[in-house]
Structures are given as C-alpha cells and as structure tokens.
Amino acid sequence: MKPDKIKIEDLEVFANHGVFPEENVLGQKFVVSAVMYTDTRRAGLTDELTASIHYGEASAFITEYLKSHTFKLLEKVAEGLAEEMLVRIAGLQKVQIEIKKPWAPVGLPLKTVSVEIEREWHTAYIALGSNMGDSRSILEAAVQALDEIKNTKVEKVSTFITTPPYGVTDQPDFLNGCLKLSTLLYPEELLKELNRIEKEAGRERIIHWGPRTLDLDIIFYDDLVAETDTLCIPHVEMHKRAFVLEPLHEIAPYKRHPVYGKTVREMLEDLRK
C-alpha cells in the first residue's frame, strides 16, 4: 500500500545561505514546502497526536535546521534537511522537500528559484561470507560495522550456516549469512561502504571465487533492477546459490525477485529440485 502524506506548504524562514558572503551575513527569506510520507492509519483510528507526525513540530524542526546552518547551495540545504528529517522524525518513510529562494541575487527579474528533492529509506539485503580466519567473529564484526554506517540500520540478521565452496572448490568451507538493512545510501554509495568493510577485514581480491576473509554482496535493493560497471542488482547469481537463498529465506521468505517474479522461497524450492 502507498504511504499517506502530511504536507507543509510555503513555510517562510529567514536564514543565511548563499554563495555570496553578504548572503551568509545579512541573510534572506527562504520558502520551504515538505511532503512527509508516513502511515496515518493508527492516528486516524485513535485520534492520538502521538500516533502521527506532528506537523507543528516538523515545521519548527525545518525552521531550526535552516537557521542553525549556513550553506552555499540550495542543493546542500535540501539534502541536509531531508536527511535530518528522515533520521530524526519517527515514522517518516519518505520526504519531498522544495526550497525556494525569492530574493536570489541573479540581477534579472524573476519570481523565485528553487530546488526540489525526494529522499527515502531504502531496504537492502546483504549476503555475508567468510572462509579464512575466525569466520564467525569476522561476520559478527561485519554486521556491527554495517550497523555503524551513517544513516544505516541493520534490521534482521540470519543465522550463519556452513556451506561448501562455490566455483573454486579446492578451499575451506564457508560460513554464510544474510541481513536486512534500512539505509539512506544509494546503491553505489552502499557498495563503497561494503568494500571498505571488506578491506578493513583483510579482504584481498586475488582469485575469483577464491578464499576470502570477508565477502559482502548486495542481493536486493528495494525492487531496483540496475546494472553498472561495478554492480548488478539484483545479484546476478543469487537465484543459483543455496548459500544465499537459505539464510535469505530465514529473514525474507516472501521477498519477490523483481525480474523473475518468484519469491525467495520459490527460488529455493526450485534450486532443491
């Protein structure tokens, strides 16, 4: 189901943002509109203010954020505000922000300039694997490291299972698992963080499908279907790998593959035939 919306329109804030030094010193008027996506069902049934997002408090939050920071670009103001709202306001799933600058110093007759962005919490599923060193401690440390990434929260973690090696079979068994996380990071940003955690765990990319201290792969990212030079989402081989599907089934049996249309349970059943 689509989330409900709470709207704040044309909130006027006097703040100090702009490229020119005088804008940072003298300040000017900004006009902010926000669409907050949340679930208002419980508030609608109970008539309790605490069951929804308080638009008065949200308006005060926006005002305080713009007044307490100074940035050159509207893009930075909008990005920072959206991030802080998603992190700080309970129940906020997605937010659309538009920031207008009526007094933009461009030397031409215009009504206003503005920046509008949309940001939201994303759900990603990450596969973890290790077959070098103390694999259990390495995977547990990786889970903690993922949870410590800024604006990222680990929601569920599967049990770790021992599985035979895949591809290059002349190597020790692996310890594998999967986890679910919520993040504000985009896929490439998340991948960069995964690579950092792998490197900090001593990962060296020498032999394809060879032994490794830590392997972290993005399996799903929302229902995104995308391919770049550095990643493929959903993971291109995940439906062929029991060591991915078995722990993933534990935490998300009904997650549906956006390309093949099958749930994790159905893909695992197909693999076991």
From TrEMBL:
**Catalytic function, reaction form:** 7,8-dihydroneopterin = 6-hydroxymethyl-7,8-dihydropterin + glycolaldehyde; 6-hydroxymethyl-7,8-dihydropterin + ATP = (7,8-dihydropterin-6-yl)methyl diphosphate + AMP + H(+)
What keywords are annotated for this sequence in UniProt?
A: ATP-binding, Folate biosynthesis, Kinase, Lyase, Nucleotide-binding, Transferase
Pfam (any one): HPPK
Enzyme Commission no: 4.1.2.25, 2.7.6.3
Q: Does the keyword Ligase apply?
A: no
- List the pathway annotation: Cofactor biosynthesis; tetrahydrofolate biosynthesis; 2-amino-4-hydroxy-6-hydroxymethyl-7,8-dihydropteridine diphosphate from 7,8-dihydroneopterin triphosphate: step 3/4; Cofactor biosynthesis; tetrahydrofolate biosynthesis; 2-amino-4-hydroxy-6-hydroxymethyl-7,8-dihydropteridine diphosphate from 7,8-dihydroneopterin triphosphate: step 4/4
Provide the GO biological process annotations: folic acid biosynthetic process; tetrahydrofolate biosynthetic process
Q: Provide the GO MF annotations for this entry.
A: 2-amino-4-hydroxy-6-hydroxymethyldihydropteridine diphosphokinase activity; ATP binding; dihydroneopterin aldolase activity; kinase activity
**Entry-linked InterPro entries:** Dihydroneopterin_aldolase, FolB_dom, GTP-CH-I_C/QueF, Hppk, Hppk_sf
Domain of life according to the entry: Bacteria
Q: Where is the 7,8-dihydro-6-hydroxymethylpterin-pyrophosphokinase domain?
A: 208-219
> What role does this protein play?
Catalyzes the conversion of 7,8-dihydroneopterin to 6-hydroxymethyl-7,8-dihydropterin.
NCBIfam families documented for this protein: folB, folB_dom, folK
Question: Which family, according to the similarity comment?
Answer: In the N-terminal section; belongs to the DHNA family. Belongs to the DHNA family.
Q: This protein is called what? A: Bifunctional folate synthesis protein
What species does this protein belong to? Dorea longicatena
Gene this protein is translated from? sulD
